[in-house]
Amino acid sequence: MNQHITPTTPLHAACNWSLDSLKAQSWVKNISDASSSTHYPIKLLRYWFMFNLIKQQQQRLGRPLRVCEIGVDRGQMRRYVQDADFTELACWEAVDYKLQPELNESGYTKQIQANVDIPEFGLAEKYDVIIVLHLLEHLFEPEQLALKLSAALEPNGILIGGFPAVPQIIQASRQAKIRKTAANFGHVSTFSPERVRNMAEQCGLHLDFLSGTYILRKRNFFLENCKGWVRLNLLWGALCPAFSGEIYWSMRK
Questions:
Q1: Is the pTM of the predicted complex or chain greater than 0.85?
Q2: Exposed e or buried b for every residue in 159-169, given b needs 16+ CB within 10 A?
Q3: Is 127 in contact with 58 (CB distance < 8 Å)?
Q4: Where is 128: in which H helix or E strand?
């Protein structure tokens, strides 16, 4: 079973990844949290995780990547990679139910307007990386989308993403509770590390990497100017992902 396979990327690996790309993100900071003034805002770690997983995939394959991003908002993920000077890309396509004007400035090779939450949705091409960053928690049947996307991966391709985390013991009850009051396109699914492992297995994918993010996240907290504080949060996330605010992961075909 997939949960017994040793991950290709050790859980503590994120603690050693460079934080320098976070300081280059003035555009993404302005879009995601305009009032933040710290050098290493923990809120931006969502893009940082994806950026590093993408870089590792390119190093592993040794060629420019074909990337598809599902649920792009205003293009923050693409701009993060662009402003971090990563250029080893054959294409980077955007898929969203609503295509925002900012996407025209973000370097996408194609923009596809589509509703991923309908049975007819599917991707027509194959990719080395498919990104679902803070998307699956908005879907009532997230495993169904993950299964569709796994079919669109090239051999050795990866599906990467992340979302808020909860411990397995409260996952089902928490999900039932939020579904009663969820706004339109609000959070309707909750995820524990165990659910992520099960999702990978259901899709026939190998869970390469799973780690959490933080002990404490507070806007303009002075310690977010210190790399050591961010590394401490990342260490906590690696050791206790279910109790770390958010989890990020990579599943390989």
A1: yes
A2: bbbbbbbbeee
A3: no
A4: strand 127-133
pLDDT in tens, 197-212: 999 999 999 999 999 9
The pLDDT of residue 145 is: 97
Is the separation of the CB atoms in 129 and 54 below 8 Å?
yes
Check which CATH number belongs to the domain holding 18 and give it: 3.40.50.150
- CA dihedral for 226, 30, 56, 218, sign (positive or negative): positive
**From residue 5, how far is each of 147, 160, 165, 207, 241 by CA, in Å?**
20, 18, 22, 8, 18
| 62, 65, 104, 157, 246 from 207: Cα distances, Å | 21, 20, 33, 12, 17
Contact between 236 and 212 (Cβ < 8 Å): yes
How many domains is the chain built from? 1
Residue range(s) defining the domain that contains residue 234: 2-252
Q: Which regions of the chain are under pLDDT 50?
A: 1-8
Q: What is the pLDDT of residue 1?
A: 35
Q: Count CA atoms within 13 Å of residue 166 on its CB side.
A: 14
pLDDT score at 233: 95
